[in-house]
């Protein structure tokens, strides 16, 4: 069992980096149609700044921040379960109630605000992950890696289907249905038709009601996404549990081991992702090769890269330093900051707000990211100096316990609270 009488500082700092990094990964999904997320060539030949922005994001950020956040979710989930057991509560009831409310938040986020929600997915996978919470470290690692292998195989099969469908659609005598099926798949992987581009831009520039109606009929639902991305997310959560139990995520290992993991993980990951970038560019961002790159090739590189990032953050974080303290506070309020970025970005880009959807270049989107990062760093610590929890963390905690939790309190009181609420 892993007791949690106090907050574990390393978890907060890593979570803070992850929630800030997720914004940098998601900004293209806020400012552009969904098909533009994977490639800078979806709406025409990319400029040099746009190509550089996409390349840097793909190599350094994309998938790694989500994976890092999934690691932390698994570790934090284990802390809550262990703390419930230590307090004499039923851990299954506590955990599943939390996941149920997280699912409610996620579904509301998905359909009312933004199609890219991850919370409902985490709730479903988190409920499944509970079954593995008592396993020893070696089993958690083995099963986590097995889940990622299953995900790689599943996505490799989908990639093979893309190549087969392309061949069938470009055969002499191909049926209209086959051609349409290929174009629908190509739309998803960054090779949309002009009609699809115009349609998606019009939707994003429409009213809030129009967007809700579109998401209700077109957004990938939580159950569907579970079948597509569930194995990898579960694998990351199990590895996060193993990271907590082994002491890796709590900073208990030697500095030399962390440095070795950071250097090896990041070097191998970045070199591999740079190769994928060259592969995509060399094939002109053809939808088949974009699918191959994002699905089959990138997936097995992520775990080692994420471990490297976690180790690097632990090594570089300076306890008590100004930046470390601010990032840690942002991590303690990750739920509020995650949903807060959605509200800010959808207001900036969608038609019911400033209407900048599709108006900025990919490189210009990062001019939006930096001020929001500064806002996260600016508000999180002062808030926690006065209150025990972030606003949404407090609401989630209160709903999960069927009782309003005390909100006001000293920093020391907050430090004794659970790490992930």
Automatic annotation (TrEMBL):
Residues 245-400 form the DUF418 domain. Keywords: Membrane, Transmembrane, Transmembrane helix. Pfam families: DUF418. The chain crosses the membrane at residues 12-32, 52-80, 100-133, 139-163, 258-279, 291-317, 338-357, 363-379. It comes from the Bacteria. InterPro entries: Bact_Transport_Assoc, DUF418. PANTHER family: INNER MEMBRANE PROTEIN. This is DUF418 domain-containing protein. The lineage of its organism: Bacteria, Pseudomonadati, Pseudomonadota, Alphaproteobacteria, Sphingomonadales.
């Amino acid at each position: 069992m892993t007791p949690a009488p106090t907050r574990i500082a390393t978890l907060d700092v890593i979570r803070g980096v992850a929630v800030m990094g997720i914004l940098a990964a998601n900004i293209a999904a806020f400012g552009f149609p969904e098909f533009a997320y994977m490639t800078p060539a979806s709406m025409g030949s990319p400029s040099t700044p746009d190509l550089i922005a996409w390349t840097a994001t793909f190599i350094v950020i994309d998938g790694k921040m989500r994976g890092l956040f999934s690691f932390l979710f698994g570790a934090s989930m284990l802390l809550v379960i262990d703390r419930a057991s230590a307090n004499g509560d039923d851990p299954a009831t506590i955990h599943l109630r939390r996941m149920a409310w997280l699912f409610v938040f996620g579904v509301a986020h998905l359909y009312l605000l933004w199609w890219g929600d991850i919370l409902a997915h985490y709730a479903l996978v988190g409920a499944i992950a509970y079954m593995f919470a008592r396993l020893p470290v070696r089993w958690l690692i083995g099963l986590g890696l097995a889940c990622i292998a299953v995900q790689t195989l599943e996505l490799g099969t989908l990639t093979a289907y893309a190549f087969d469908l392309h061949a069938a659609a470009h055969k002499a005598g191909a049926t209209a249905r086959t051609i349409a099926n290929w174009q629908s798949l190509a739309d998803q992987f960054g090779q949309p038709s002009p009609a699809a581009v115009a349609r998606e831009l019009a939707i994003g520039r429409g009213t809030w009601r129009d967007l809700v109606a579109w998401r209700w009929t077109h957004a990938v639902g939580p159950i569907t996404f579970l079948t597509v991305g569930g194995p990898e997310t579960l694998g990351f959560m199990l590895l996060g549990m193993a990271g907590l139990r082994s002491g890796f995520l709590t900073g208990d290992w030697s500095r030399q081991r962390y440095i070795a993991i950071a250097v090896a993980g990041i070097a191998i990951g970045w070199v591999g992702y740079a190769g994928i970038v060259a592969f995509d560019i060399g094939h002109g961002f053809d939808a088949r090769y974009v699918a191959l790159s994002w699905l089959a090739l990138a997936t097995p590189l992520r775990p080692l890269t994420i471990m490297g990032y976690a180790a690097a953050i632990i090594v570089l974080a300076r306890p008590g330093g100004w930046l470390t303290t601010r990032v840690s506070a942002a991590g303690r309020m990750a739920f509020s900051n995650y949903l807060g970025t959605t509200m800010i970005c959808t207001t900036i880009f969608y038609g019911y707000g400033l209407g900048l959807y599709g108006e900025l270049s990919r490189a210009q989107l990062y001019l939006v990211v930096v001020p929001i990062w500064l806002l996260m760093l600016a508000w999180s610590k002062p808030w926690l100096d006065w209150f025990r929890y972030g606003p949404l963390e407090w609401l989630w905690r209160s709903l999960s316990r069927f009782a309003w939790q005390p909100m006001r309190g000293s920093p020391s009181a907050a430090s004794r609270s659970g790490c992930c609420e």
